[in-house]
From TrEMBL:
The chain crosses the membrane at residues 7-26. This is Alpha-mannosidase. Catalyzes the first committed step in the biosynthesis of complex N-glycans. It controls conversion of high mannose to complex N-glycans; the final hydrolytic step in the N-glycan maturation pathway. It comes from Electrophorus electricus (Electric eel). It is found in: Golgi apparatus membrane.
């Protein structure tokens, strides 16, 4: 069986649909309804000590090896009998040929047609009413004047008769914000609050059809649904049918928008929506995101693509809210930066005030609005901090109270274009008991009844869902309900994002971009495992469909494991989970859930791999315990096979490293041809070694490759060479007797290279100083440093959310000189430098393709002994980037950034999910990251990334603790320097001749037709096209730059053309 070819063709054909079709393919299995007692039991077995041990265990594994992601897909089992053929064009080569041996066949480079490169070259014409957030940032002064009762805003006034013609419509939207983990774990919140909220909801909404409620976290809703009887389920369905209960957004959680990768964002949305469709037949229309700490256009795009028409956001910088309120542009169509039309537009409402609680939602004055939060009635557990309590509404006070509230509604409506006002009514975990429902709903109903029965007030007030609000808004502004009907829309278009969020003063929420980096790293690892397992599972099902089902393939069991994994990944995307802003024990709970679902994934991978490689599971299923996961600790008694799985849609050549018990290893292709391998020491402590074998595996897209290993002497296996350096100190190396180890006494230059790059490293600090691109032979100054940030001495200090540094960073200067270890070998070379707080590795792979073109950087960070410190890696280059740099949003798109001196230092940090880069006219320097972290470019040519934070105090955002549960964390990066393609330029000189047609043209005429002086250029043949003076010295301002050129008779025109 030609396994790899089959997979290449097969994989490519179905790749586009395979991931998400998983849901459809398995819909009929109805697995949602099947409970898994074993896994539930495991999740419930929550003794903290055991859990902490598990986390610590994973931490140790992580810290030891930064190659886990690459290795994690390996499956180790005996495949000797099952592998008959290999696709491998892999040929054994003579070692004497040096590095070229590692590139035994040239990869097939596919040239990109120039049409495919036009995306980044095109310029976007902005509509006249389009708001670009970068321009808003340029324009605003970010001062913070006292705005009066609306502290961050301004005084709002109105005329009494403003609503005479068109009454004010007030939609009060009851909501309860249920965090799936924050101060309590998901299960504890459910037990103590959420289940009571939902139980009371069924009773209390049925009491009065005018009552409404919205719900958004399906993780909680589905748990509750599984615990209620059929009568209650029917009652819920009735509430939905009657429009009293709306499922808003319908995601598994309300995800963070800064640190999340778009795969996980889609995953959690899909999981929630599929649950809703299967169990309630509901299709959400409106997204509700009141608590994520800053908002990303990626999320807006995903909502739009998921079929939602409207969305609401809340946590936006107070200066931006104020600016938009002044302009009445708090409602807008959010459009993606790249969209030249309007296909990505989604109608978005930005809440204008400080918070989503009742004091900040009825109008501008929190002292007044708090009096309309009837949970705060005297005698209750909470009160109003403004010290004026609410009053129960009676016939005596209803007039006065209604006027007071209406005044707030009217003022709020003055910030918007329409005469419809939205007033959310809720807070965190609200409506837990029956009394609270009665307090809120009865008192408000009395106020509404009064307002609505007094026509002179010109107001119509009611409870509504969030979609009710948008429905009325669309109606009064003449828009259709689903689409946008832009022709009559009064709303502007906005592009850009809402990072970095500040809620007051200089309190920028850029700390959470890095808080708890261990878990941010773990999230991305598990996301990649899940994705890999899901693809493999889908391929296996397709394979079974094509070739018949083996007798005992556990399709249902595997699907259950994947569902459980997907839901736990979804849970971790919550805005207090991946953000690192939960209590210590909540963080441990998330970690435990991750481990609980991580462990079964290799079983899925193993089953699928077995089916796909050997076509049957009969003889292999019992070997599942041999699957090594997540580390490839490989005991080598005799002959073994290694299956390498490539879960991406591109062919890959990657270095695979496996622990071995002997340096005498042969690595062979499945056909038995030897492969070049490198034996490296694995340094338990930085100078003590055991062994590891590394080789380059070539794997087709979505394919599997099999390599065999056996013990024995092999010419193609080479031991790495080592050199140790320590300025002014002695190094003793133990446990590496079989390796050639040099310990020079005097300073020697330190340099490593591969076919693409050469790195020059300081022989005293062990840090990168210069990078040479072999492509053009040019050397570039690229220096790596480490720096510390402390926290301010002011009252408010850095915590899990906030970054409040004590000024510019201070250089990390280790108390003793670092030990520098240089490794050289045929597969990879590296420099590892060990400081007190960081083990820093720069590695170059001797490999063609992307893996060889970048420097792999791994920083294993340990700041557990520090007090209020944050550690960052700073890269300083000679790139003239000025104040511009770029960070990605959710691994999906790139957002330009500008570092602004008018903003405090902490405001200039942005989330970096997968990359950040700097560029000038000649080069681009990209830092790719394997985990989400906060990044900035504080000076031209500089890029820095915060790697861990240890903070001894709370930052007053409700968490009630500092961040002191730091773990040893391996941060993994790649540093890529790319010279810009110098586009080829040509001069086009056109001359239109002047003809006299008054003479006979017989025998002497033209051999082709004329075009009346018109020339059309084909867009594909050039990038830019500029009219210039005859000798190319002056640019012409008059001639339009379009594709059709028109010349007058006798005219000579010149154009400067950049060829594509
Ligand atoms: Zn929340």
């Amino acid at each position: 069986m030609k396994i790899s070819r089959q997979f290449t063709v097969f994989g490519s054909a179905i790749f586009c649909v395979v991931v998400f079709s998983l849901y459809l393919m398995l819909d009929h299995l109805q697995l949602d309804r099947i409970k898994n007692p074993i896994n539930e039991e495991r999740l419930q077995n929550g003794q903290l000590v055991i859990l902490q041990d598990k986390i610590d265990h994973l931490e140790r594994l992580l810290a030891e090896n930064n190659k886990i992601i690459a290795n994690i897909r390996d499956s180790v089992t005996n495949l000797r009998k099952s592998v008959n053929n290999d696709k491998g064009p892999l040929e054994a080569k003579n070692l004497s040929q040096g590095l070229v041996d590692l590139l035994p066949f040239a990869p097939i480079w596919v040239l990109i047609p120039s049409e495919d490169c036009q995306f980044s070259a095109q310029t976007y014409s902005k509509a006249a009413d389009e708001v670009q957030m970068l321009d808003v940032y340029d324009m605003l002064s970010f001062d913070n004047p006292d705005g009066g009762v609306w502290k961050q805003g301004f005084d709002i006034s109105y005329e009494e008769n403003e609503w005479d013609q068109e009454p004010l419509q007030v939609v009060v939207v009851p909501h309860s914000h249920n965090d799936p983990g924050w101060l309590k774990t998901f299960d504890d919140y459910y037990r103590d609050q959420t289940q009571h909220i939902l139980n009371n909801m069924v009773v209390k909404l049925h009491e009065d059809e005018r009552r409404k409620m919205i719900w958004s976290e399906i993780s909680y809703f589905s748990k509750w649904w599984n615990n209620i009887d059929i009568q209650k389920k029917d009652a819920v369905k009735k509430l939905i049918e009657r429009g009293q209960l709306e499922m808003a957004t319908g995601g598994w959680v309300m995800p963070d928008e800064a640190n999340t990768h778009y795969f996980a964002l889609i995953d959690q949305l899909l999981e929630g929506h599929q649950w809703l469709e299967r169990n309630l037949g509901v299709k959400p229309k409106t997204a509700w995101a009141v608590d994520p700490f800053g908002h990303s256009p990626t999320q807006a795009y995903l909502f739009k693509q998921a079929g939602l028409s409207n969305m609401l956001i809340q946590r936006v910088h107070y200066s931006i809210k104020k600016h938009f309120a002044t302009q009445k542009t708090l409602e807008f169509f959010w459009r993606q930066n790249w969209d030249q039309e309007s296909s990505t537009d989604i109608l978005c409402h930005m809440m204008p005030f400080y918070s989503y609680d009742v004091p900040h939602t009825c109008g501008p004055d929190p002292k007044i609005c708090c009096q309309f939060d009837f949970k705060r009635l005297p005698g209750g557990r909470i009160s109003c901090p403004w010290r004026i309590p609410p009053q129960v509404i009676t016939s005596d006070n209803v007039q006065q109270r209604a006027h007071m509230l209406l005044d707030q509604y009217r003022k709020k409506s003055k910030l918007f274009m329409s005469k419809v006002v939205l007033a959310p009514l809720g807070d965190d975990f609200r409506y837990t008991d029956a009394q609270e429902w009665d307090q809120q709903f009865n008192n408000y109903q009395k106020l509404f009844d009064y307002m609505n029965s007094h026509p002179e007030l010109n107001v119509q007030a009611q409870f509504g869902t969030i979609s009710d609000y948008f429905e009325i808004l669309r109606k009064v502004t003449g828009m259709d309900q689903a689409g946008m009907n832009k022709g009559v829309s009064p709303f502007p278009v906005l592009s850009g994002d809402f990072f970095t969020y500040a809620d007051r003063d200089d309190h920028y929420w850029s700390g959470y971009f890095t808080s708890r980096p261990f878990y941010k790293r773990m999230d991305r690892m598990l996301e990649s495992h899940l994705r890999a397992a899901e693809i493999l599972y889908s391929l296996t099902l397709a394979n079974i469909k094509m070739f018949g089902k083996p007798s005992n393939y556990p399709a249902v069991e595997n699907y259950k494991l994947l569902t459980e994994a997907r839901r736990n990944l979804g849970l971790f995307q919550h805005h207090d989970a991946i953000t690192g802003t939960g209590k210590d024990w909540v963080v441990v709970d998330y970690g435990t859930r991750y481990i609980a679902f991580l462990l079964p994934l290799p079983v899925v991978v193993h089953c699928c791999r077995t089916i796909l490689v050997s076509g049957d599971i009969e003889n292999e299923w019992q070997l599942r315990f041999l699957v090594s996961f997540p580390m490839n600790v490989f005991i080598m008694p005799s002959f073994r096979s290694v299956v390498v799985y490539n879960p991406i849609e591109q062919a890959r050549s990657s270095v695979i490293s496996i622990y071995v018990t002997t340096p005498h290893i042969r690595v062979l292709t499945a056909q038995g041809r030897p492969v070049i391998a490198q034996i490296t020491a694995v340094w338990e402590h930085f100078t003590q070694a055991s062994t590891e074998v590394s080789f380059v595996a070539h794997v087709p897209p979505l394919g599997l490759a099999v390599y065999q290993m056996s013990e024995g002497v092999e010419l193609h296996t080479e031991l790495a060479h080592y050199m140790f350096l320590k300025k002014g100190g002695h190094v003793s190396v133990t446990g590496a007797e079989q390796f050639r180890v040099a310990i020079p006494q005097e300073t020697v230059p330190v340099s490593v290279e591969n076919p693409h790059l050469q790195l020059f490293v300081s022989s005293t600090t062990g840090l990168l100083e210069t990078l040479k691109l072999k492509e053009n032979g040019l050397k570039h100054s690229i220096k790596v440093d480490f720096v510390w940030y402390g926290t301010t001495s002011n009252k408010d200090k850095s915590g899990a959310y906030l970054f409040l540094p004590d000024g510019e960073a201070k250089k990390y200067s280790p108390s003793r000189p670092p030990v520098i270890r240089v490794t050289k070998g045929p597969v990879f070379s590296e420099v590892t430098t060990t400081f007190t707080h960081i083990t820093h590795t720069l590695r170059l792979y001797n490999i063609q393709g992307v893996d060889g073109q970048a420097v792999e950087i791994c920083n294993t960070v340990d700041i557990r002994g520090e007090f209020n410190q944050e550690i960052a890696m700073r890269i300083t280059s000679d790139i003239n980037s000025m104040n511009r740099f770029f960070t990605d949003l959710n691994g999906f798109q790139v957002q330009p950034r500008r570092t602004m001196s008018k903003l405090p230092l902490q405001a200039n940090f942005y989330p970096m999910t997968s990359m950040a880069y700097l560029e000038d006219s000649n080069r681009r320097l990209t830092l790719l990251t394997a985990q989400s972290l906060g990044a900035a470019s504080l000076k031209s040519g500089q890029l820095e990334v915060i790697m861990d934070r240890r903070l001894n105090q709370d930052d007053n955002r409700g968490l009630g603790q500092g961040v002191l549960d730091n773990k040893i964390t391996a941060n993994s990066f790649r540093l890529l320097l790319e010279p810009r393609n110098s586009a080829q330029e040509a001069a086009l000189i056109l001359h239109r001749k002047g003809f006299d047609c008054g003479f006979s043209s017989r025998n002497t005429g033209l051999l082709c037709s004329t075009t009346r002086g018109k020339v059309i250029l084909f867009r594909q043949s050039y990038n830019t096209f500029t009219p210039v003076s005859l000798s190319l010295m002056y640019e012409s301002s008059s001639t339009p730059k379009h594709q059709e050129i028109s010349l007058k008779p006798m005219e000579i025109c010149t154009y400067r053309i950049q060829l594509g």
